[in-house]
Amino acid sequence: MLVASSAGAVVLALLLGVFVFLILADRARVKDTRAAVASLDSELQKISAEQAQLNATLRQPANAEVLQRSLLLNALLERKSISWTKIFADLEGVLPADVRLISVRLPQITSQNEVVLDLQVGAKAPEPVILFLVHLRQSPLFGPVDLKSTQPPTLQEPLYKYRVTVNYAQKL
Predict the structure, then answer these.
(1) Label partner for 35 (CA 20 to 30 A): which of 7, 18, 43, 107?
(2) CA dihedral in degrees (7, 9, 11, 13; nearest 10)?
(3) How do residues 86-97 score in pLDDT, each as one tens digit?
């Protein structure tokens, strides 16, 4: 009984030693991580202070006109960077023959620099348009498809009309 207790005590003492070693090694690793986080936080604070100073300079009344002009020019350049030829060529690759592209509204650019297309398509039956939506979803050039509205055929317009928005992967 004493031998077994002594052996158990030795095993427990070894386990205690292993756990103490692991705790100390983990502390050292966490200390390095905390130092890296602190360094990055101080760098972030410096950059934020610089950004605030630059924003304050740009917001001064003397610079407000230049800022507004700069924002307008940047927006125009961003819109100009979208290639209509490329949009139509890529749509042609996924558009079935019996689906008509009725309209494409001016592409919108999201805050994540994604181009969103607003399309109106039409067909004599709903099946070709469903096939078109499947092609859009499967294409690597287009993102999620959102069906906005549908319109049944009328006497004046014999087409089923669908309004669709889709993300487009054209690089700006």
Answers:
(1) 18
(2) -150
(3) 888 889 999 999
Strand partners, 116: 108, 167
Residue 81: pLDDT above 80? no
Cα dihedral 23, 27, 28, 33 sign: positive
Q: What is the SS3 assignment for 13-65? A: HHHHHHHHHHHHHHHHHHHHHHHHHHHHHHHHHHHHHHHHHHHHHHCCHHHHH
| CB of 108 closer than 8 Å to CB of 116 | yes
Q: Are strands 160-168 and 115-123 parallel, antiparallel or unpaired?
A: antiparallel
In this structure, what token pair is assigned to residue 5? 């207790």
